[in-house]
Amino acid sequence: MRPGRASKVQKILGFFVPGGPFVKKEQTIKRLLIIRHAKSSWRLEGVADEFRPLAARGYRQAPLMAKQLPLSPQLWLCSPAIRAYSTAYLMMSELEPAPLKIEPALYPGDPRAVLALLSALPARLERVALVGHNPGLESLVQQISGEPVRLRTAEVVLLESAATHWADLMAGAVLTQLPRPE
């Protein structure tokens, strides 16, 4: 038998030659962390919404949020709003290094635009974090998982899907809501 070829017996019994054409590829799970920014400040009058900073409580929450994550993202997608960027930066400082990409589609976060953004992600990525705002995030989670969810500030949900490509997320995902740090 030539290397990389399975015999009839191996095919029937399910034994496959490593690296051969009959090797079953491991099914990858797409994991998407949906993160609502930490508590923001309303103390500065006249500041445009996009430029509102985190409150002192938000600065305490963000590192704690990172410590509760069940995984370390390979890529961070973040709204350009200061409070979202600050949340992402503080969380990232507690985890393995990964690229951060500021995405204008995440502010205010129309679910259709966010789904288009996710659909364009390369299939090789398996773990992505998305930091943004309501009501867009709640709507996005419901569209993907089919379950309604309430996302308060500093809350995180994990969506897990057997999709091969990010564009296939709409086929459904399992929702896990993570505990909120106080």
Structure description:
By secondary structure, the protein is α/β, with parallel strands linked by helices. It has one domain (25-177): Phosphoglycerate mutase-like (Rossmann fold), CATH 3.40.50.1240. It contains five helices and six strands, in the order αβαβαβαβαββ. It has helices at 8-13, 56-67, 82-92, 111-119, 136-145; strands at residues 30-36, 75-78, 100-102, 127-132, 156-161, 174-177. The longest helix is centred in the middle third of the chain and has 12 residues, at 56-67. The protein is globular and about 50 Å long.
* Corresponding CATH architecture: 3-Layer(aba) Sandwich
Tell me the strand order in the biggest sheet: 3-2-4-1-5-6
Strand content: 15-25%
Q: What separation lies between the terminal Cα atoms? A: 63 Å
Coarse structural class: alpha/beta
How would you spell out the order of helices and strands?
HEHEHEHEHEE
